[in-house]
Write a structure and sequence with these properties.
Length: 231
């Protein structure tokens, strides 16, 4: 741990300082960069096309959460780590108000869409630039964690969540998974869900020396991995 900014722990991935944010975003103070993962905009409307009807407000709620994090940190750059749009037609379904919100959030700052498996192509109509990966201070930012990565990495894709027992009851929350080499970020999308950190998919990525940082109601909770429960 390298220090503390506004009550949030600061960690180092190589030379890059990273601060997990209660919103599910990752703040890089030295780079004035806010990283978000798995917004899954228009997931609700995607389900509706298959006859599964959910409240159609997930994109609005997700963008509001993102806007609050941007307002709090005032970043010069946003990097969205893939699956920002739930499918290839999500851009078309995004309503005019949410398009306007997105445009306002992009104003005056750099914006990079890292492509993901749900959104391998993002049109210029969504603003910003696109990239397969981004390198910052020797840390690779990508959508899907790479087991073969020998350096440092920030990724999304797996939607990590942790289940623990607190005050006599089981609690399951989205979380950051942090190891000396890697940060796997929680999904920010309102309907994105989460994969339990005890799942075998995380084993080769995190090893033994990792910690889980649960998104609480008012703060983050750092949890020893030995306390994590299966679903």
């Amino acid at each position: 741990m390298a220090g503390d900014i506004t009550g949030s722990p600061v960690f180092l991935l190589g030379r890059l300082a990273v601060v997990p944010d209660l919103s599910g975003a990752l703040w890089l103070p030295d780079e004035r960069t806010l990283v978000v993962a798995d917004l899954h905009l228009e997931k609700g409307s995607s389900y509706a096309t298959r006859g599964i009807f959910l409240p159609p407000y997930d994109s609005t709620a997700t963008l509001a959460r993102l806007a609050a994090a941007i307002h709090r940190h005032q970043p010069a750059r946003i990097i969205a780590l893939g699956d920002s749009f739930h499918d290839r037609a999500a851009e078309i379904r995004l309503c005019a108000d949410n398009r306007a919100t997105l445009k306002a959030l992009q104003a005056g700052r750099d914006w990079i869409w890292v492509t993901g498996n749900h959104d391998p192509h993002i049109s210029g109509a969504m603003g910003g630039d696109t990239a397969a990966t981004v390198d910052l201070c020797g840390v690779t930012l990508r959508h899907e964690p790479d087991e073969g990565e020998t350096g440092f990495e920030i990724a999304g894709h797996l939607h990590p969540a942790a289940k623990v027992r607190m005050r006599g009851r089981a609690l399951r929350r989205r979380c950051f998974a942090l190891s000396p080499q890697r940060c796997v970020m929680p999904a920010m999308g309102a309907y994105a869900g989460g994969l339990n950190l005890r799942d075998a998919a995380f084993g080769p990525l995190l090893g033994q020396g990792f910690s889980a940082h649960l998104l609480g109601d008012a703060r983050l909770f750092r949890i020893d991995p030995r306390l994590l429960l299966p679903d």
